[in-house]
Amino acid sequence: MKKLFLLLIAIFLVSCKSTYLDSKRTDVLLDINKETDDNAFVNLKNYSNNFVFDMKYATTDNFLKEKVYPCDECFLRVKTIKSLLQANQAFIEKGYRIKLYDCYRPLAIQKKMWKIVPNPTYVANPKKGSIHNKGGAVDITLVDSLGNELNMGTAFDFFGPEAGHNYTEFSAEILANRQLLKAIMLQNNFKSFDSEWWHYNLSNSSTDEVSNLKWRCID
Q1: Rounded CA gap, 7 and 23, in Å?
Q2: I need a labelling partner for 50 at 20 to 30 A (CA). Which of 5, 60, 102, 139 fits?
Q3: How would you label 80-98 residue by residue, b for 16+ Cβ within 10 Å and e otherwise?
Q4: Distance between CA atoms of 25 and 163, rounded to whole angstroms?
Q5: What is the model's pLDDT at position 205?
Q6: What is the pTM of this model?
């Protein structure tokens, strides 16, 4: 009986541990091409130093006005990171870098967002789930060599027609910046989202499973 009890405790602890993603940073950068499971969730920061991070939901600077991520990690599926690294290299060759606002998002956070903005044009209904919940979506912009954001016409998470790719009442500079972002992302296996200039989904990621995995912060 005692052995059975200890076995159940061990299974419970393993089960609890497995519901969290590993936030530990590696001492040296890893090679994403050596990852054998394309669907595994991994931390982008372990594979490149060439991105800028401004993870909005790890701050109060977002439309929720609430910090809902414990820290500013960027988890994605391996296959998403492979394409993202290729896209970022293309931008680097033109003098820019990707700045990330959001990556993988647990389903519990999606439910919070839906309560605040229950409009499928801007927030995915959690009953179906967002590509963010599947580890296949990123919210991004571009920065120049000095780290300055390119002018995209609206702020991130702006809820209005001006945020859409089909809105053209902007200066030639803004339209060119959006087109640069979109063109290279589309060339690297991503799809754009009509109502949000910052949102890109990995192609064919819609069939992946919705996840509610969370992460603990590592000091």
Answers
A1: 27
A2: 60
A3: bbbbbbebbebbeeeebbb
A4: 34
A5: 96
A6: 0.89
